[in-house]
Amino acid sequence: MTSPPGPSFIEQIKEKLRAHEPRRIPPEGRPPAGVLLLLYDVDGRTHLLFTRRTDLVEHHKGQICFPGGAREEGDSDLLRTALRETSEEVGVRPEDVEPIGQLDDIVTFGSNFVISPYVGVLFVPPPYPFDHARHEVEEVLEVPLEHLLDSGNVVREVRRLGERDIEMQSYRFGDQVIWGATARILRQLLDFLAKEGPGS
Fold first, then answer.
1. In terms of CATH architecture, what is 10-148?
2. 16 closest CA partner among 147, 173, 195, 144
3. Strands 97-102 vs 114-122: parallel, antiparallel or unpaired
4. 28, 113 contact by CB (below 8 A)
5. Which residue, among 126, 167, 139, 158, has the nearest Cα to 42 in the 3D structure?
6. Where are the chain's structural domains?
7. Which of 5, 118, 148, 188 has the greatest count of CB atoms below 10 A from its CB?
């Protein structure tokens, strides 16, 4: 049974990203990383791809993340890093993705990475044959943007990070919670849809 048609946000996001100049953070000794916010429509409804990490990885065990990772020596830039990691983690070929823009860099609290988030559109008709790397990815989550834009799925919570208690905005999807660096990046994308301006 297919879902009823829903709103597509892809063109609106494209328009707003064209006018956005991303804030870059110098690494200053911190490892640089690139992640991909992969958008695609299913039955007219825009979805965003997340992964749940295994307990076998070095950083962010068991957390909900965007596909991506640390820059490697052969990566020409951090967009290449994000595309390469997405291919390795969930089997999405770089040639199936149209990069449409970049969000502001962030620094992770615990692992101290400087993350550059890129936004891309998967232009292969669904369903896409996602194939996740079992060592790194426990499962692939396909989340409708409508769900994330619903204020009923947004929670404020305090989490202990190292020596500090930090209040943060998180997002619920079923029994999963999207929090931390992923939630901060996600909020940037959702804020684009709430802004007045190009594509509104």
1. Alpha-Beta Complex (3.90)
2. 195
3. antiparallel
4. no
5. 126
6. 10-148
7. 118
